[in-house]
Amino acid sequence: MRGEDAIAQAFRHCADRFYAVPGYPVTYLTAQIGGETAINEKVALEYALGDALQGRRAVVILKNVGLNACADPLVNATTQGVGAGVVILAGDDVDVTASQNAQDSRYYGEIAQVPVLEPDPATCQQSVEEAFRASERFSRIALYRVTPAILNAEVPEDLPLRNPLPAVPAQRDLTMRGRVASADRQLAGMFAWSRSSSLNRLRGGTVGAGAADANSHVVTVYPPPADLERYAEFHELGRPFLREHRGVLPPATTNIPQTYGSRGHYRTFCRNCPFTAVMQILAEQKRRVVCDIGCSLLAMNPPYAIGIASYGLGSSIAVAAKSTGIALCGDYALLHSGINALMDVREKGIPLLCIVLKNERLGFVGEGRAYDIDPYIAWTEPLHIRAQDETRLREALVPSDSLSVVVIEGVCPPGEKHETVEY
Q: What contacts 177, CB < 8 A, 6 or more positions away?
């Protein structure tokens, strides 16, 4: 069977949810797999992360240049973790047939510290299941790279046994520094995984990846398997990624992941923050929300601990749409990139309560000035509530069976900083 038919069959078998932004060379593959088209690739990946939080495997199909739009949630997911396997199927247009560049997606493996698999004809289907298992084992996104050569190659049918691994997001008691240290420890494990993978066949002679003609084949291209230094000749489609990374070593893992307890304190909202009533109400109602970057991120910490995940600026809306149904974000995060997801959610009629904390500021504790969001989200018919109006807040902060945007207006107290509380 043709490579793209085999790959489509394997993904339909191994995944539960499918998202895509079509483009050469994966347009036909997208049609074969089916699934939901998103307004852009970032939103598609955020939807997939939301599904993963609910225990559903998800794949995002895109072309090489579309991967750039995913960079923020892709990198952030490495330290935040996933709840089930998430795989990005990236189609690289190495000959620039229908693209604006010849980008090689494998380099994102190093940037985001994620496993990258590039199947050869013999491993097209087995490597799909292994990509999901690697995502689950190391609690991060995995990349599955294809080129036109592998999509058009004749490959054997070898449908894998679906065998998910338990996966959980980062431990809730880890600080941000602790999450980074924990992810680094997992990276060392990724090197061992690659070096022991039966998908790689190192027999001497030339070494290659994908559909490149060679005596030996590497499928787990990042992290690379051991002993590639002994090969003098590399055959690759695209840039010389394997050759450049043949001497890469596992990182040292000396840092013990920091917890709030070992650090001795946690951070929470400013003492006179106008929005703490919102957090208190959500905590009393035992709501689970997806947080954005900005002050809403503090809702993951004590004393409220209502946030279950955060995958980057503007990410909460799409992630929540496929998981908790409640997004918590700031006005700047909404304008930064969350508004794309808001449009997609509305277009598809996905139920979502989107809570926007409006302080007209760019960053933590009132730094910089953001645009007024009102002219840009009027089409959502938002409900505006003053942060001090607790009665109306209690009425409004309930899950919705459609898109409900609640804009809560407050003013940051000048000169205050987030409180540091002994743990």
A: 258
Q: Which two tokens stand for residue 220?
A: 């787990």
Q: What are phi and psi of 393, to 5 degrees?
A: -60, -45
Q: Is the pLDDT of residue 311 over 70?
A: yes
Pair 357, 334: CB distance under 8 Å: no
Residue 35: band (very low, low, confident or very high) from pLDDT cuts 50, 70, 90: confident
Closest CA to 297 of 284, 279, 281, 280: 279
Q: Could you tell me the end-to-end alpha-carbon distance of the chain, in angstroms, rounded to an integer?
A: 59
Q: Any idea where the domains of the chain sit in the sequence?
A: 3-244, 264-422
Average pLDDT, integer, range 340-369:
87
Could you please state the CATH topology (level 3) that the domain comprising 3-244 is classified under. Answer: Rossmann fold (3.40.50)
Beta strands in 118-251 (DSSP E): 142-146, 207-209, 216-218, 220-222, 234-235
Q: Are 3-244 and 264-422 equal in CATH topology?
A: yes
- Does the domain at 264-422 match CATH 1.10.1530.10? Answer given as no
Across 14-18, 251-255, 311-315, least confident range: 251-255
Rounded mean pLDDT of the chain?
94
Alpha carbon 168 to chain centroid, angstroms: 14
Instruction: For the beta carbon of residue 98, count every other beta carbon within 10 angstroms.
Output: 11
Tell me if the bond preceding 25 is cis, omega within 30° of 0.
yes
The string of pLDDT tens digits covering residues 237-275 is 999 999 999 989 888 877 789 999 999 999 999 999 999
Q: Give every strand in the sheet of 326-330, ordered side by side.
A: 307-309, 289-291, 326-330, 352-358, 403-409, 383-386
